[in-house]
């Protein structure tokens, strides 16, 4: 694995094996991290974290890499099984961010470190609703536009 930095010694064997396999797949693409990021929905820095075992990759990232490499369906399934084993064994050193929704939501994030940042829990979506304010503003703007138009018609005949 020539140019790769060495993995931490205390990594569980499942994680080490998976990351080494991920590195081999990345090497098979012949792409740089920036090019890999451009061909997937994951940035160069995300791929750097995944390939250096500082963060587990989301399942979709692994699937995208397998697609780029051109693996057969059976091989993709084997990679996904290794991903599941690695994610279960992944070290949980990072603190779970304090998120609205209570301890049960934080526990869910701790249990699945691959949840994307854009995965907003339903209770957070409910909190973010504007309760029709936007609709009221649009109505007021429309009314103002109507008043200006009628005023213009009356003034200019």
Summarize this structure as a short list of keywords or feature phrases.
single chain; 157 residues; mainly alpha; 64% helix
Polypeptide structure, described:
- The protein is 64% helix and 0% strand.
- It contains 8 helices and no strands.
- The longest helix is centred in the C-terminal third of the chain and has 24 residues, at 133-156.
- Mean pLDDT is 80; it is low at 94-100 and 105-111.
- Helix 1 (13-29) packs parallel to helix 4 (59-69), helix 1 (13-29) packs across helix 5 (73-89) and helix 2 (33-39) packs across helix 3 (44-51).
- It has 157 residues and is an all-alpha fold.
- Summing up helix and strand content along with how strands pair, one would put the structural category as mainly alpha
Percent helix, as a range, is: 55-70%
> Tally of extended strands?
0
Query: How can the largest sheet be summarized?
Result: none
Low-confidence stretches: 94-100, 105-111
The sequence of SSEs as H and E is HHHHHHHH
Shape: elongated
* Distance from first to last alpha carbon: 81 Å
C-alpha Rg (nearest Å): 24 Å
Give the overall pLDDT as a whole number.
80
What is the gist of this entry?
With 157 residues, this protein is mostly helical. Helix content is 64%, strand content 0%.
Write the layout of secondary structure elements.
Layout: H1 13-29, H2 33-39, H3 44-51, H4 59-69, H5 73-89, H6 102-111, H7 122-128, H8 133-156
């Amino acid at each position: 694995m020539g140019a790769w930095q060495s993995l931490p010694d205390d990594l569980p064997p499942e994680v080490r094996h998976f990351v080494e396999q991920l590195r081999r797949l990345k090497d098979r693409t012949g792409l740089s991290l920036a090019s890999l990021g451009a061909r997937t929905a994951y940035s160069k820095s995300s791929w750097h974290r995944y390939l250096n075992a500082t963060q587990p990759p989301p399942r979709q990232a692994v699937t995208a890499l397998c697609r780029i490499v051109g693996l057969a369906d059976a091989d993709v399934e084997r990679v996904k099984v290794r991903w599941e084993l690695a994610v279960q064994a992944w070290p949980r050193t990072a603190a779970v961010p304090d998120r609205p929704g209570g301890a049960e939501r934080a526990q869910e994030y701790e249990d699945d470190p691959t949840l994307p940042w854009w995965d907003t829990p339903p209770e957070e979506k409910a909190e973010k609703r504007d309760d029709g304010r936007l609709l009221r503003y649009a109505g007021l703007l429309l009314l103002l536009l109507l008043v200006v138009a009628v005023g213009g018609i009356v003034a200019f005949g």
